[in-house]
Protein 1
Amino acid sequence: MEVRKQLFGLHPSIGAGYNNLCLVYDRAGQRGKALEYAKKGLQIKRIFVKQPSNTVLVSLLNVALFTHTIEDDSDKSLGYLDEAYQIRESLGLQHSLTGVIEDYRGDMLSHSKRWQEAAHSFSEAVHWYRVTEVSSRTIAEALHKWGVALKHLERFDEAHQRLTESYQISSDLMAEGHSKQKDGKNLDNTVGELDDLKRIRIEESRR
């Protein structure tokens, strides 16, 4: 990539190339390098792409994710997500990437224990995932995280509803033979959260 820059100068395709390197390093478990190339890709794309575009938005999502993971800086990551949301808003919110933005936002707000905002973001993620017909697996995972946020807010009935929905979707995927390892993990985690809610309710009934 650096040789190409030296030979031909900057070109829009270099931004996409850096983004691909980001994904390669992420799969290799080298998230520091993934963040480095995500930032380089975003920088190049910003030079050449002046109109709102999903290509810039995807780079913003990558930078937000790895900034949160590597630098543990939720505020900076949320800033990138705000910028990504503004791009998607100008293009039209009815797109699966709107759900991804809200899902990432919910993760980062949960990390900061900002449960009220996290619950709202996960509810928005589920809404846009359903509207844009993304995979049931993705919806189940978002429902699970929404339920956990509601549990932290002590909105136990709502938490139980969301977790039960997540459980049902994951169970159906496994019963239909379309399951992956993460479905079993989501199912186990959801069962654990439902058991915890049951314990909380028993304790409350004894007071």
Note: Residues 3-9 have pLDDT under 50 and may be disordered.
Protein 2
Amino acid sequence: MAIIIAAIKASFGKEEDNELYEEAMDGYLDLIDNNIRMFKGGIKEIYAFCKGIAENEPALNVKKKGIECLVSLVENRTNFVKSMKKENPEIFEIILKTMILNIREPDEEWTKPKIDVKTDDEIILFCIDMLNRLIETLGEIEALPIISKNVKTLVKSGDWKQRAIALICYS
């Protein structure tokens, strides 16, 4: 496992290698999805690695892979990850922060009256899908209090981006 992480890190931070880095993350995601038993003793290390990418990677396509790895880790190691009470809220927060940082600036389309608050922004749709996968995996009893707490905080914010994301989450 350390060799796999080292190989992925070798291309980390090199702008010209973002495509290679994304491909390496795809391979890592495939391993998590299909061969999770291979990582039996290193789940916390995998979590920390993926979390670092999801939080700190400037390239959005690679950041998405980090988020997807975290969600897949929860899906494939549900019993273990359910015991990670501190980490589950962190994953929700990472996804919500990604949404806030990447929501489009208002344009004339936003000023038209409409009833639904749906969006066609790719990153927002990706994050909504990741939130839905987490809720489905963890179950409503565990996931909804976490997301509700975060959304309540977003609604109270003075930042329009945070309130917009809260509305999207409510819908």
Note: Residues 97 and 150 are 10 Å apart (CA to CA).
